[in-house]
Amino acid sequence: MDYSWEDISPYNVIVNTTGMDARAYQINILKSIYAGRNTLVVLPTGLGKTLIAVFAISKSLYEGKKALMLAPTRPLSEQHYDSLLKLLKINATDIFLATGSVRGSKRQELESASRVVVATPQTIYNDMIKGRLSLSDFGIVIFDECHKAVGKYSYTYIANECKERGIQVLGLTASPGSDQKRIRELVAALGIEKIEARSSLDEDVSPYVMGTSTRTVYVEKSEPIKAITAVLKPVIDEHLHNLYKIGMSPFKEFEHMPKGKLIEIGNNISKIEAKNYRFNAMFNYVYLLNLVHAYDLISTEGIYPFLNYFESLQSREKKSRSLESMLKNAEVKRAIDIAMHAAAAGEEHPKMWMIADILRQQGASKSTIIFVQYRSTIKKLVDILNGEGISAMAFVGKNNGVTQEMQSSTLEKFRSGKFKVLVASSIGEEGLDIPSVDMVIFYEPIPSAIRNIQRKGRTGRFRFGEVMILVTRGTKDEAYLMVSRLKEKRMFDILRRMGASMDRNPYGQSQYRQKKL
């Protein structure tokens, strides 16, 4: 069946659709939104959530109402503002980007005069509680990256105002997560009455997705890494066993212990009232926590991140007794010594050399994003790739001297092809206008449905893409790989069940607007 923007007439007349073909899933989702119910749209990265938002805004404008579009960061708000300027057939002065750089009184004036307001939720929250902005004239509020709308986040306050005033809500995300309780909290926070969830395999989406191949690449620990982990493991098990003996841990050996249980142990210790008992437990716990992190770094990240971590611990001005004891431990010192000798000999984690080999085989004309968990790993990997003749740059959050201008410059260079390999932290996963690439590499698996879907969505948009996940055998990588697969499947199962339940009990017009009639 052929689809046309005329299928959603008359609201299409306000949108500049030149050069854009109507897609089946977009038309189907928009018809659902136009029915007036508060809608959660779950759509993989790169499949046009912003365009769906623009058409939702067009209906509100056509009916004489204003529209508010929220995004969790200023760069993403600016990106949406630029998109609205291009796509909406209204005066540019009718669209206002509200930021903290605009004086409060001036912002009030511009928000009042504008037909479309784009902002971070914190800016709007501040204006609402100070009486500078009322939502009474708004027909729709769009919550981009709406999986953040839980707890006391500003999104939640604004969503409550929408419910009180009967304003339609549209939530957009690539993934709301895989925890049923969290998804229900999100649905409740936004007052969602209809779920429109799509994967790249759905019938109305698959014709528009070029497709990806996903491959898991296993690597073995190098001999220096095996030596370091062999030295650390008995020390870790010693302190875990100390916690086991006093009833604070159900595990004797840390390799049998899920990471979440480690956090749970700390929470339980903090509740102990007896001071001496709590001190003894906390001493062993802090020792354990630091060493488990170091063990994971050397196992799955690399020698440089491992040494960098210990440097950061040693440089602390104030150290707990537990930390002082750990840094003086003879076996810990021996592990650090092995790492230093390995680094001096040019050794690193096999993943880094594996990536260099993969990129050489791929060829210089193709683009790649490598997602990495830790900044220290990013730094070392970029150094190695450039040393191997592969042009790469780091893309990390605003910290340690990195500014927004530097981030923008890096992205612009990547978009224009001045370098082909972007080594990114989690900031590259969400929202920002990063172009589709030929390959996405996970330096390590991550146990998060949200982040997995966002990462994978960076390829396979306009041409066939590859996803490669690196896994170090015998490490937490293997567990995280399994968890991530299960969580992604669970997410869509939950969304389909909840969506079906809502469809069996339709409200027609929004239940929140009915309250006001």
From TrEMBL:
GO terms for molecular function: ATP binding; catalytic activity, acting on DNA; helicase activity; hydrolase activity; nucleic acid binding. Residues 30-194 form the Helicase ATP-binding domain. PROSITE patterns: HELICASE_ATP_BIND_1 (PS51192), HELICASE_CTER (PS51194). Residues 354-517 form the Helicase C-terminal domain. Pfam families: DEAD, Helicase_C. Keywords: ATP-binding, Helicase, Hydrolase, Nucleotide-binding. This is DEAD/DEAH box helicase domain protein. It comes from Candidatus Micrarchaeum acidiphilum ARMAN-2. The lineage of its organism: Archaea, Candidatus Micrarchaeota, Candidatus Micrarchaeia, Candidatus Micrarchaeales, Candidatus Micrarchaeaceae.
